[in-house]
Design brief:
single chain; 12 strands; D-Maltodextrin-Binding Protein, domain 2; 2 domains; globular; alpha/beta; 6-stranded mixed beta sheet; 47% helix
Length: 346
């Protein structure tokens, strides 16, 4: 075969491949829109996702919600395993990801920045008073007495790696209450002992076993515990020490480079949802959407979530600062405030 024939065949092959590519491109853009898989939890903290999907606010992008169980750490795990394109989560798992995968995390946005969503509940009344603004010493003494009555320590269940971990530890430090960390050495001088339990298993564990005396979690689990376990009592929340929760979204650099345009459309849908949720006339509808997703038992927790929420899709300095403070609590000293402020969509 002479060189001219080879050249003709090569040109025909290139044209054919190009034609197939154009056809595929046309199908993607004139048929179904591109898809984003988003990991989230069917619980409080993920309300914006629920409302956006229910109301059809995502335009020009097919958003497929991928529910996970446990905490936002499971959302992030799914993202880093390339099972999804975006993770909805809290700032704790984001800090973990920025620490373990420093060159791979891209912040997409925050959607709710509020305080009071992390709550601690005891199985029985441990006679620990509510914080009144200045009674840390009284609370310290109460925990010491409670530890004695519980057999040496107040065993508190919470999920390691979740936002709750840094929030509860921050609260204990603020109150001056010593604690034994997960798997730490025994210390009779520290009244609290942390026990690692998946967030979605905390209520049943506290209700049906003696493994823990109290639990720390984000809603709806604290409200479920207070409703289900007779004699249970709220100990406190992250509102006591003015610490904030941050519901947010992240992706990876690979997904960002491949699907930036789709993510921009996704963010626009979240903005529409935030504006809709912030409008008082839509309050009852939005709450019912969330109850329908989470479950009827979540009604009280959903009511409380909407009372304290600040629905806004953004990446503000305040949001970045909350993420940075969480990194500080976790002693991730390599993560700077400037790194936390870096968000290509805002």
């Amino acid at each position: 075969m002479d060189s001219k024939k080879i050249l003709v065949i090569a040109v025909i092959a290139i044209v054919a491949i190009a034609g197939i590519s154009i056809a595929v491109f046309a199908m993607q853009n004139n048929g179904e829109p591109g898809e984003l898989k988003v990991a989230y939890l069917k619980k409080n903290g993920y309300e914006t996702e629920m409302v956006a999907e229910n109301k059809g606010f995502f335009s020009g992008v097919k958003v497929t919600g991928v529910p996970v169980t446990g905490s936002g750490q499971q959302s992030v795990n799914a993202l880093l395993a390339e099972e999804v394109d975006i993770a909805a989560t809290g700032q704790g798992p984001v800090a973990n990801a920025m620490h373990t995968n420093p060159d791979d995390v891209v912040i997409v946005c925050g959607v709710n920045h509020c305080t009071g969503g992390q709550v601690w509940v005891s199985k029985t009344d441990l006679s620990i008073p509510a914080f009144n603004g200045s009674n840390q010493t009284v609370i310290q003494d109460a925990f010491a007495a409670a530890a004695t009555s519980c057999g040496g320590h107040v065993k508190v269940g919470l999920q390691k790696g979740a936002t709750t971990e840094s929030e509860f530890k921050g609260w204990l430090n603020f109150m001056g209450v010593g604690f034994i960390d997960f798997g730490g050495d025994e210390d009779p001088e520290k009244p609290v002992k942390l026990v690692n339990i998946d967030a979605n298993k905390l209520v049943n564990t506290m209700s049906n076993t003696n493994d823990i005396d109290a639990m720390a979690a984000s809603q709806p689990f604290p409200s479920q515990a207070l409703s289900k376990i007779s004699g249970s009592k709220m100990i406190g929340s992250n509102a006591d020490n003015g610490s904030y929760d941050l519901s947010m979204y992240i992706t990876t650099k690979k997904v960002y480079n491949e699907k930036k345009d789709l993510i921009e459309k996704f963010v626009e849908g979240l903005k529409k949802a935030s504006e809709y949720m912030a409008d008082a006339k839509n309050l009852d509808e939005c709450k019912q959407i969330c109850v329908d997703v989470i479950g009827e038992s979540s009604k009280a927790a959903v009511d409380e979530a909407f009372k304290i929420a600040e629905w806004k899709t953004d990446w503000s300095d305040a949001m970045a600062n909350t993420l940075f403070k969480t990194c500080e609590k976790k002693k991730y000293t390599e993560i700077t405030l400037e790194k936390c402020k870096d968000c290509p969509f805002f």
